């Protein structure tokens, strides 16, 4: 069951859909799930529940503005190349405040998928207080042509194929979700988007996961993270595309469990 909270931030006042996972877990740590460019609470399916049970930690799942059952983006509103910076540096602190989450009092981990992984990195570079670590699945740190080509194909599938009705099962306004993401990435100004200069400032441990068959990015993305950030472990998965938690959930859960255990607090069993 999801709830909603009103978040006031630089881009407006928005109702944000969210849900807590494994609320009976010990207080003090929260695993925050940051979805991909077309994601939502419902598109995670049961993965947050499975991962939080494996770790014995409370989770927080939400749909960003424009997605799921959160306030939709109005048709004339456009997200610029800095939209992920807005999410990381303005929205997230205000979202946490609206929920009564205090980084530092609560120790945070992020599980960021795709754009969500990029948002996690931007946040970590600027707000280290209370942050213990990151799990990044298919994150982006620079723009590759393979990414843009796949987004162009997705746009054609949305306009001419069955992508729109499929997304409508997870977003109250699928146009809001799709074109907010698609138009931002395909904006010519986005080609120079590059967050690699921030990576040396990410001091927390990072687990970066990438599939060899990812149609939206290559191994360069996580290899650049490992080259530039000080504490990075890589997991490269065969037979895995852009959504490791859907393509290989057991492998991802086990990799995260071992990573958290190495940091000294994840429980030994998988729940």
Task: Describe what you observe in this structure.
With 271 residues, the protein is α/β, with parallel strands linked by helices. The chain has a single domain, classed as Alpha/Beta hydrolase fold, catalytic domain (Rossmann fold, 3-Layer(aba) Sandwich), CATH 3.40.50. Helix content is 37%, strand content 20%. The chain contains nine helices and eight strands. The chain has helices spanning 47-55, 83-99, 115-126, 145-160, 163-168, 174-186, 220-228, 244-247, 249-262, and strands at residues 3-9, 12-21, 29-34, 58-62, 107-113, 131-137, 206-211, 232-237. Strands 1-2-4-3-5-6-7-8 form an eight-stranded mixed beta sheet, sandwiched between helices. β5, α3 (115-126) and β6 form a beta-alpha-beta unit. α1 (47-55) packs parallel to α9, α2 packs across α3 and α4 (145-160) runs antiparallel to α6. The longest helix is centred in the middle third of the chain and has 17 residues, at 83-99. It starts with a strand and ends in a 9-residue tail after the last helix.
Helix/strand layout:
Blueprint: E1 3-9, E2 12-21, E3 29-34, H1 47-55, E4 58-62, H2 83-99, E5 107-113, H3 115-126, E6 131-137, H4 145-160, H5 163-168, H6 174-186, E7 206-211, H7 220-228, E8 232-237, H8 244-247, H9 249-262
Parallel strand pairs: 3-4, 3-5, 5-6, 6-7, 7-8
Antiparallel strand pairs: 1-2, 2-4
């Amino acid at each position: 069951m999801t709830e909603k909270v009103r978040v006031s931030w630089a881009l407006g006042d928005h109702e944000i859909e969210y849900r807590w996972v494994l609320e009976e877990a010990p207080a003090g740590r929260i695993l925050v799930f940051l979805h991909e460019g077309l994601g939502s609470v419902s598109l995670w399916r049961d993965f947050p529940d499975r991962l939080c049970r494996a770790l014995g930690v409370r989770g927080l799942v939400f749909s960003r503005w424009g997605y799921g059952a959160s306030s939709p983006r109005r048709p004339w509103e456009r997200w610029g190349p800095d939209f992920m910076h807005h999410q990381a540096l303005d929205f997230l602190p205000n979202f946490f405040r609206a929920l009564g989450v205090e980084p530092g009092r609560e120790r945070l981990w992020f599980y960021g998928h795709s754009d969500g992984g990029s948002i996690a990195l931007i946040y970590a570079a600027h707000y280290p207080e209370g942050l213990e670590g990151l799990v990044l699945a298919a994150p982006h740190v620079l723009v590759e042509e393979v990414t843009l080509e796949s987004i162009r194909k997705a746009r054609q599938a949305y306009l001419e194929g069955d992508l729109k009705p499929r997304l409508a099962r997870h977003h109250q306004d699928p146009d809001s979700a799709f074109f907010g993401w698609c138009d931002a990435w395909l904006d010519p100004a986005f080609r120079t988007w590059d967050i690699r200069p921030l990576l040396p400032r990410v001091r927390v441990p990072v687990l970066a996961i990438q599939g060899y068959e990812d149609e939206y990015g290559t191994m360069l993305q996580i290899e650049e993270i490992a080259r530039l950030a000080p504490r990075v472990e890589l997991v490269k998965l065969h037979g895995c595309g852009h959504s490791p938690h859907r393509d290989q959930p057991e492998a991802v859960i086990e990799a995260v469990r071992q990573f958290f255990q190495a940091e000294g607090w994840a429980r030994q069993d998988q729940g």
